[in-house]
Amino acid sequence: MIKHNVNNLFEKIIQLNPFDAIVVLQYVEQKYVVQHANCKAVHLFNCSFEEGMDAGQFFHQINWSEVKQFILQNDQETKRIKIDDVEIAVVLQTMMEQGKEYTVIIMRSLLTSPIIDNQRLHIMSSAYYDELTELYNRRALNKQWTDHDNFEKTSNVALLLVDLDRFKKFNESLGKQRSDRLLFEVSERFRSLRSEYCEVFRHNGDEFVIIFHYEALEEVETLAYNILQSLQEPFIVDNQEYFVSASVGIALSTIEERDLDNLLHQADQALFYIKNNGRGHYCYYREELKHYFPNEALMEAHLHRAIELKEFMIYFQPQVNLETNKIDSFEALIRWENRKFGMVSPAQFIPIAESSGLIISIGEWVLERVCQYQKEWREYGFKPVRIAVNISPKQFKQKDFVKRISALLQQYKVEPKYLELEITESSMTNLHETTSILSRLKEIGVYVSVDDFGTGYSSLSYLKEYPIDIIKIDQSFITDIEKDRKNKAIVETIILLAQNLGLEVIAEGVEETAQEQFLRENNCQKVQGYLYNRPLPANQIVEQYFH
């Protein structure tokens, strides 16, 4: 057992310093003996290693008495020795294990880095080692990637970027300590994939990078499959089973064309694609994915100037009143036509706007532009219509949000009843805060609707607690309504409940006449979807609905 623990200690030291020559000494019977030496040390001193051999014999190429003097000085300053005219930096540490004292000597060639400070050479730092997962870290990835010896194994290299699906839910529900344990268990399974041709790195948070040297593409397929299969069995944390899945983006390269940053970016694009198209599988990078997922940082930079350069537009989707068969309301939807990316899907730029905080200024621009349209249409003598505007959670929780709404209505002389604010479940998590904001909005006189109703877990309580006017049934319930009995029952219940509470109901995503017929029969007030029209720019709305 003692022997096992000491060997584990040696392995730990090597993991902490994967690119250095390491020798572990013990003082036994008035002399130092070598208890452990890694391959780099054996190669450096051109000496075969036997456990317990005399240290002077092992260090035959250098002045052993000089190294022994370093040990006796018992400090942690960086020393320097020479081997065949190559200067070697030496740092020593004393460690205790099972009541025995060991001296750890770690050596690094200064041939490629003649200027190096003591702090950077301090041996017990975890510079290349991730303490949580006990895998190599990003720094180790960069270091190994520049080591040409690592690229003599095969002619092809695959970089696999592995992201744990929805791992945030474990952080939120288990807490940091237990979710860290779960992450360690996942890393243990990934560690089993390591070989002479395959290395695993913790890249960032719940992302891992696997570098694989291969001959045939089928080998990459097998590795990707094994990654996913390694997660099939449940993980046990505090006697509770948890299931984890992953998505994998794969980028391929040859030795001659290898560029780590480019491969990481390509694998990230492939990963983004697979996570938005089902998760739990793997995807190779393809050239056309450039258009699916442009550089996110570059896109954010362009978003910063989109308002200034007048790249945003408002499209409107009509909402049909099934009681009158007329259109008296629209939903305003933002569109972005960028000079570099062309027409960018909201599914791409809205998440970037939200994460960067730009969603607040963009949301304010939409609100003001809608009020401007209301004023213009009124001045042209068009019939007044209600326009719904999507409000992001961050925008909704701004301290001056209600004042801003009131000011816009006054500035453009818009009657409050012609403005509808669509909020989502994530905006309504704080009961007191949400009630206060909604009550003040109702005092102004605007309409308030809950978007994507039915997809959250607390939606029914919202109807009871909050002063809202409209619920919008999510299109996921409408899509297969004529085939799916459960969806049909859910929609029927939502409509009936809304009627009993005096709320208006709007069904989204109506594309077939059978869906419309069902909604008519169940007294749904309004519908919107491609069956009636796609979102249209303002000039087409005017031509089709106001003339």
Automatic annotation (TrEMBL):
<keyword id="KW-0378">Hydrolase</keyword>
<feature type="domain" description="EAL">
    <location>
        <begin position="296"/>
        <end position="547"/>
    </location>
</feature>
<keyword id="KW-0548">Nucleotidyltransferase</keyword>
<dbReference type="Pfam" id="PF00990">
    <property type="entry name" value="GGDEF"/>
</dbReference>
<feature type="domain" description="GGDEF">
    <location>
        <begin position="155"/>
        <end position="287"/>
    </location>
</feature>
<dbReference type="Pfam" id="PF00563">
    <property type="entry name" value="EAL"/>
</dbReference>
<dbReference type="InterPro" id="IPR052155">
    <property type="entry name" value="Biofilm_reg_signaling"/>
</dbReference>
<protein>
    <submittedName>
        <fullName>Bifunctional diguanylate cyclase/phosphodiesterase</fullName>
        <ecNumber>2.7.7.65</ecNumber>
        <ecNumber>3.1.4.52</ecNumber>
    </submittedName>
</protein>
<dbReference type="InterPro" id="IPR000160">
    <property type="entry name" value="GGDEF_dom"/>
</dbReference>
<dbReference type="InterPro" id="IPR001633">
    <property type="entry name" value="EAL_dom"/>
</dbReference>
<dbReference type="InterPro" id="IPR043128">
    <property type="entry name" value="Rev_trsase/Diguanyl_cyclase"/>
</dbReference>
<dbReference type="InterPro" id="IPR035919">
    <property type="entry name" value="EAL_sf"/>
</dbReference>
<dbReference type="GO" id="GO:0052621">
    <property type="term" value="F:diguanylate cyclase activity"/>
</dbReference>
<dbReference type="GO" id="GO:0071111">
    <property type="term" value="F:cyclic-guanylate-specific phosphodiesterase activity"/>
</dbReference>
<dbReference type="InterPro" id="IPR029787">
    <property type="entry name" value="Nucleotide_cyclase"/>
</dbReference>
<keyword id="KW-0808">Transferase</keyword>
